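Our platform keeps sequence and structure together, in a single record for each protein. Such a record has a labelled line for the sequence and another for the backbone structure tokens. This encoding replaces a full spatial description with a residue-level series of whole-number codes. Below, we set out a record of this kind in full and without editing:
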Amino acid sequence: MKTPLTKSDCVIQILQTATVIWRESRRFFRPFGLTEAQFNILNLLGQSPNGLCQRELSDRLVVDRSNITLLLDRMTAHGLLVRNDVPGDRRRYRVCLTEKGLSLWRRIHPHYEKALAHLVENLAAEDTKQLLKNLQEMELQAKTWKEELS
């Protein structure tokens, strides 16, 4: 007789899936000379022709905020990004892709979209919607762990 699945089985499976996706994404981006975090920045900026402020990038990224400045510094040193002053606010700047960065993003992005499609190709559209809804709910719940467990 098979043991019934538990809630912890669900969380363990999510963590195992995330681990495999992160590992494979590192392999995917390595030939392009990027980390997955650097591609996340390229991808956000590639879809934002006017650039984004560092705070906006931090809010949207799938990396720890403490790493954003270092990531931007490295990518700027490689000629992929430029920081432009924001008129009227000397404390802020807008991060934009350079031609080199935009060219790299355009080269990678179709392959990335194909890889994402492959991840969900065996899921029906309705299952994909439900999965997304469930994961978003779990994310909200995870953000309240500390309060709930105190």
The beta strands are 52-53, 81-86, 89-97. The mean pLDDT is 89. DSSP finds seven helices and three strands in the chain.
